[in-house]
């Protein structure tokens, strides 16, 4: 696949407890959200072909900070704290949910939301809330049914069709794909979607470059 972006070059930028600690709100950001243990960090690692870019864990609730990664200047990926993990102390849960809500509502460079859900337990209340919220904010959504390797091919396809049908009810720009970090299922589809979401930023950078060149050309004195 010919992508304008090389996701393998993605590198860690920073971890922040809330948006005030994130770099300036500019460029294009795509966030990965989902319940704890849904496979967000694993998906980011697979997507970027890196074993440990984002920390993965068997213990849900591991990623407690907003983690930012840069694919290239102005094109960032965000690994958000997982939601809905019952075992986390209430105080901590409240703090994350506040940080998560604030990020989603206030971060203007956020241009796409990837919502990851275990293919065996999709569309829990909080997942649906995330999608509703995104659609309301006119933010396009890519739903990934993760750990697709856990189902046989027939069941996997049936589940995909069922969730695609369910996604229609949201009425917005909501695409659903199967995904497996383990087997590489759906990786091309994710990259294709991210390419589309990042495209305006790449075009903006290109236009800026061209404008600079034109300006420089203009500065060359006439050879008279
Ligand atoms: N079989 C299978 N297991 C997976 C896949 N993706 C993730 N896992 C496992 O699921 C568990 C959670 O994965 P993470 O990527 O850490 O999940 P997360 O959503 O980042 O979790 P938090 O950061 O706690 O919110 C780990 O034990 C992974 O190895 C997959 O595609 N297939
Ligand atoms: Mg994680």
UniProtKB/TrEMBL annotation:
<comment type="similarity">
    <text>Belongs to the TRAFAC class TrmE-Era-EngA-EngB-Septin-like GTPase superfamily. EngB GTPase family.</text>
</comment>
<dbReference type="InterPro" id="IPR019987">
    <property type="entry name" value="GTP-bd_ribosome_bio_YsxC"/>
</dbReference>
<dbReference type="GO" id="GO:0046872">
    <property type="term" value="F:metal ion binding"/>
</dbReference>
<dbReference type="GO" id="GO:0005829">
    <property type="term" value="C:cytosol"/>
</dbReference>
<keyword id="KW-0132">Cell division</keyword>
<dbReference type="InterPro" id="IPR027417">
    <property type="entry name" value="P-loop_NTPase"/>
</dbReference>
<keyword id="KW-0342">GTP-binding</keyword>
<dbReference type="GO" id="GO:0000917">
    <property type="term" value="P:division septum assembly"/>
</dbReference>
<keyword id="KW-0547">Nucleotide-binding</keyword>
<dbReference type="Pfam" id="PF01926">
    <property type="entry name" value="MMR_HSR1"/>
</dbReference>
<keyword id="KW-0479">Metal-binding</keyword>
<dbReference type="GO" id="GO:0005525">
    <property type="term" value="F:GTP binding"/>
</dbReference>
<keyword id="KW-0717">Septation</keyword>
<keyword id="KW-0131">Cell cycle</keyword>
<keyword id="KW-0460">Magnesium</keyword>
<protein>
    <recommendedName>
        <fullName>Probable GTP-binding protein EngB</fullName>
    </recommendedName>
</protein>
<dbReference type="InterPro" id="IPR030393">
    <property type="entry name" value="G_ENGB_dom"/>
</dbReference>
<dbReference type="InterPro" id="IPR006073">
    <property type="entry name" value="GTP-bd"/>
</dbReference>
<comment type="function">
    <text>Necessary for normal cell division and for the maintenance of normal septation.</text>
</comment>
<feature type="domain" description="EngB-type G">
    <location>
        <begin position="26"/>
        <end position="200"/>
    </location>
</feature>
């Amino acid at each position: 696949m010919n992508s304008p972006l090389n996701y393998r070059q993605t590198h860690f930028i920073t971890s922040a407890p809330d948006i005030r600690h994130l770099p300036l709100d500019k460029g294009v950001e795509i966030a990965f959200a989902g319940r704890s243990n849904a496979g967000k960090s694993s998906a980011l690692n697979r997507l970027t072909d890196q074993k440990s870019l984002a920390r993965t864990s068997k213990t849900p609730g591991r990623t407690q900070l907003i983690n930012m990664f840069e694919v290239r200047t102005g094109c960032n990926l965000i690994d958000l704290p997982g939601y809905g993990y019952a075992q986390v102390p209430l105080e901590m849960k409240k703090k994350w949910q506040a940080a998560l809500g604030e990020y989603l509502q206030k971060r203007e460079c956020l241009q796409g939301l990837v919502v990851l859900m275990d293919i065996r337990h999709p569309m829990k209340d909080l997942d649906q809330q995330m999608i509703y919220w995104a659609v309301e904010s006119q933010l396009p959504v890519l739903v990934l049914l993760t750990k697709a390797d856990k189902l046989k091919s027939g069941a996997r396809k049936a589940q995909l069709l069922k969730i695609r049908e369910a996604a229609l009810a949201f009425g917005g720009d909501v695409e659903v794909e199967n995904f497996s970090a383990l087997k590489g299922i759906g990786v091309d589809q994710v990259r294709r979607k991210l390419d589309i979401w990042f495209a305006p930023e790449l075009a903006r950078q290109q236009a800026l470059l061209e404008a600079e060149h034109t300006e420089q050309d203009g500065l060359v004195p006439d050879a008279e």
